[in-house]
Amino acid sequence: MSSNAMRKEKHPQEVIVLSDAVYHSYQGKYFLGQTNMITFGGGYNAWGGLINPADSNVNMFLNAYTISNFYDKPLTAEGWLSSVLPGEGKLSRHFAAGNQSIIPPPMPMVKIQSADFVKKAPTGGTYTFVRRVEPNETLTKHDFQGMYIIPPGSSFVLFFLSPGKEKVQTRLAFGWWEEKV
After folding, report:
1. From the first residue on, what is the mean pLDDT of each consecutive set of 10 residues in the chain (181 residues)?
2. Nearest-CA neighbor of 50 among 91, 111, 92?
3. Which residues are 91's β-sheet partners?
4. Which of 43, 96, 112, 122 has the fewest CB atoms inside 10 Å of its own CB, making it the most exposed?
5. With helix as H, strand as E and coil as C, how does 114-126 read?
6. Whole-angstrom Cα distance, residue 169 to residue 71?
7. 61: nearest Cα among 29, 34, 36
8. Residue 129 lies in domain
9. What pLDDT is attached to residue 117?
10. Would you say residue 3 lies in a domain?
């Protein structure tokens, strides 16, 4: 092969393949967080979830959630999108950017909220699924890779049905990324 041909020959380019979560974490757009302890029972329900404020100017892409059952009986959780939620949501301060090397760390626009002892169910929106969480276990659902896209003014919420007379507790954790609308 002539030296001219060798100079024109293309060398393979290096390609790095990252998961969506890692890619968005590198950019400072991936967040992790959890609710406060959620308490319900005695005929009262509860909820916890990711609330995307109407003025956030971001779409939220769900990557993962976990439900920790601290009770000795199974819990039932329903998934709801874009619903009107009963009760008054309490804001969680338990969150962080996935990329802790950025100083100052990015802050999410999406909020983590929960409500204890609510009587009514969510209204409007879409009831999407039901999950059973075994006693004293954590149910993990991950690698959604942004399949749930929650626009401003909308939400992804897990609604807990009262298991009976006893008071029970659970906690939710989430992983998500945000992109400007």
Report:
1. 59 82 92 98 98 98 96 96 97 97 97 98 97 96 86 98 95 97 96
2. 111
3. 113
4. 43
5. EEEEECCCCECCE
6. 7
7. 29
8. 18-180
9. 98
10. no
